[in-house]
Amino acid sequence: MINVKRKFVAKGESYEWRIGAFGPAPGYPRAITFHQERLWFGGTKSQPQTVWSSKSSDFNNYEPSDEIGDVLDDSSIVLTMLSDETNAIQWMKSDVVLNIGTVGAEFKVFTFSSESVLTPTTAQAQRVTTFGSERTDPVSLPIGTVFVQRSGRRLRHAIFTNSLSNDETPTDLNIWATHIADRGIKQIVYQKEPNNIIWAITSDGELAGLTYEPTQKGMAWARHKIAGKAAKVLNLCCVPYKDVLQYRLFMVVDREVGGVVTRCIEFMNNEITDITKQEEMVYTDASHTAKQTTDIQKIYYNEATGLVKLYTVNDSTRIYTRDNTRGLFQTALAGNGITVDEETGLATVKFLDIKAYEPDIPSVEWDRAKKLTEVLSNRLFTLQPIEDESTEDITVWELKTSSGKVLGDDFKDCVNDIFEPGKVYSCIQGWVNTDELGLYNGEEVQVLGDGAVLETQLVTDGTLHLNNSYAYVNIGLGYRSIIKTLPVVNKTDTSEITNMWTLKIIRAYVHVYRSLGFKYGVEKDNLSVEPFRNTKERMDRATPLYTGTKDITVGDVTENKGQIIVVQDQPLPLNILSIGLKVDASDV
Questions:
Q1: Is 293 helix (H, G, I), strand (E, B) or coil?
Q2: Which runs of consecutive H residues, i.e. helices, occur in 355-481?
Q3: Are 419 and 403 in contact (CB under 8 A)?
Q4: CA distance 521 to 556
């Protein structure tokens, strides 16, 4: 309860009091926000159109006056939204003014005084629009507020000013895509970076995104159907993610696994940039990544057998647990070419020059070994420990190619790229991980191995089988992305006519950025595959990403709308910057 005052008198004890604004009888607030260093509450059962603010910078104090009854500038503010009908408050949002959405209208609390600071004597409430609002938290854009209109089928962008007459009619953000919210919107959040997207959950649990840049008049909707059986999005949240300088979208998702509904917390993968590694691009839902790396400490090449060995430190923090053995360990490590810090007793982890440890290698063999160091910087190997040459804290590994051969004279078998210089990726083969893969039991998953698309698999008992070795494996539930262009409008000198003309698409020019693979056509059941691999590329590597324009021939297909469909159904990136169509129009 608030607004309660108590007073003591000389003879006996009595109370002077007023009924609190909040409580079981009058009800509790429907909305809350901070604005101009005040905590605001809005709308109760008994006073659905009223707002209350705290004293300035005193969020627990709601006194309307001081002890002698004077109303001060920092005293609590109480205002009622006046209209010719009862409009219960649905939400409040702080902007240049305090925006308030009610069932039948939108209001603002403001003051047009020169200081624009709300006080009990200058604050006023004014109705701005009569669209009405859903009881869904709005989002703040750099300029203005976006709210869900009454009935839940439209988003409105409102910019209310500290003026009596300068407000504009809130923009309809669904005007070009009214079908997106046919079943209503129940939550929206704003992802400021990297692409100014307003994410929305529809009433049936689907995810939709509105890329919105009002200063450039850019607005584009897209549906994001979550993969999995009976999958539904329940809640959204956007938080800044410092490591990638972006905001990350988190989702609570329900999906059916093995007849049981499983609830997961998932996040949207980061935006692709010029520095994003190909193997880190994830285009599956509920995805999981597996990789195994080992820091390189020493390389040993045996001229007679052609065997190459790597020396690695298992756990550098465990090397010196006993002071009386430190000297022995230091000597042993120094003999293996590992630098030791005398004060901390920790081994230095770095990529070492093998010439310092094998000075007797003949010049020819030294050249081969030197070449090996270059190969190790950008190739993939299988590491297998040699038990008889291992100690508690140092392990000797036998180096093999991804095909299982011991690395000897032939370096061409080392063909798979690794992604961190100074590290070797242990190959993953016949990979089984029950804990992580249990989510996919009974589901078909899409699999990427080192950036290449592998065969779709059905997961049973938390098991995934790989026929070859890979350093970086991505798996997840697949989905299908579809882009359909807007109808082409045929312009004549006097009018614009579409229905009376036949439009034949001759060619299409699809400009893509760091993309790989797509299908295209004018009918979703009759699509052609656009090739991305050329004959100059190695067939045992993933096809590199492509940036440029794909000039495609659509074929001898005639329709009356002049639209093209582009589909991506593989777990690969497809970033389309523009689509240009060359059409032939003829009068029927």
A1: strand
A2: 363-376, 434-437
A3: no
A4: 11
d(CA 82, CA 69): 26
Task: Report residue 532 as tokens.
Answer: 């991305």
**347 confidence band (pLDDT: 50, 70, 90):** very low
Query: Is a pLDDT exceeding 60 seen at residue 496?
Result: no
pLDDT at 588: 55
Nearest C-alpha neighbor of 394 from the set 334, 352, 351, 344: 334
Tokens of 382: 């299988």
State the pLDDT at residue 304: 54
Question: How many C-beta atoms lie closer than 10 Å to residue 66's C-beta?
Answer: 11
Higher pLDDT, 67 or 43: 43
Q: What is the mean pLDDT of residues 547-570?
A: 81
**How many other CB atoms are found less than 10 A from the CB of residue 54?**
22
Under 8 Å between Cβ of 448 and 522: no
In this prediction, residue 555 carries a pLDDT of 65
What is the C-alpha separation between 585 and 498, in angstroms, rounded? 10
Task: Give the pLDDT score at 533.
Answer: 85
Residue 390 pLDDT > 90, yes or no?
Answer: no
CA 395 to chain centre: 39
Distance CA 588, CA 13 (A): 96
d(CA 578, CA 560): 22
CB 488 within 8 A of CB 563: yes
Rounded mean pLDDT, 100-126: 89
- Report the predicted TM-score, pTM, of the whole model to 2 decimal places: 0.75
- 317, two tokens: 């923090």
Q: What is the pLDDT of residue 295?
A: 56
Q: How sure is the predictor about 584, in pLDDT bands with cuts at 50, 70 and 90?
A: confident
pLDDT value at position 4? 44
Distance between CA atoms of 119 and 110, rounded to whole angstroms? 10
3-class state of residue 101 by DSSP: strand
Among 152, 122, 116, which residue's Cα sits nearest to residue 134? 152
DSSP for 443-470? Answer: -EEEEEETTEE---EE-BTTB---SS-B
Amino acid occupying residue 494: T
Q: For residue 215, which amino acid is it?
A: T
Asked if 54 and 74 touch (Cβ cutoff 8 Å), the reply is no
CA distances (Å), origin 102, targets 105, 131, 148, 160:
5, 9, 11, 15
Q: Where are the alpha helices (DSSP H) in 189-325?
A: none
Beta bridge partners, 576, equal: 512
Nearby residues of 535 by Cβ (< 8 Å), 6 or more positions away: none
